[in-house]
Design goal:
Layout: H1 7-35, H2 40-66, H3 73-91, H4 96-125, H5 131-163
Helix pairs in contact: 1-2, 1-3, 1-4, 2-5, 4-5
This protein binds magnesium ion (MG) and fe (iii) ion (FE).
The site of fe (iii) ion has 7 residues, from α2, α4 and α5.
Amino acid sequence: MTSMQSARDVFVDGLRNAHAMEKQALSIMEPQVKRLEHYPEVSAMLERHIRETEGQITRLDEILSGLAEEASALKDLSLSFTGTMAAVTHSMASDEILKNSMANYAFENFEIAAYTALIAAAEQAGASSAIPLLEQNLREERAMAALIEDGLPETVRRYIALSATEQRADI
Ligand code: MG
Ligand code: FE
């Protein structure tokens, strides 16, 4: 198959993928916040990032409408479903907090890669006004990845301590 996609097409497709990725992020984080009982710092961190993610989606919508384009409802729906299934699968594990923490860290790093790629596509497409907005999203993903990484050892210690008691350790 020959590919005759313009830089603009690649950029718009990347924006739609990022929009769906952020919907997926919400569908992964929201069920975790509802279930967590013994990890208030993790819960608060996720709550803050849910608010940030809503802002990221607004920025992506802004960029798309500036290009007279819109998000893809089909992509949004299918990735939201995938995110929900990931959260449900982890809720069936006896070490739910650990599986989710590792998956959240992997997801943030995927987002870092997505925005790094999207910024390069924006440059190629000459969409210079989009770049500061994408850089803001990228900064927030980097900050969240660092918070998850820094908090992981303490989460493991608390999980082990709770596991030695009659309390539930995994949420
Ligand atoms: Mg995000
Ligand atoms: Fe994120």
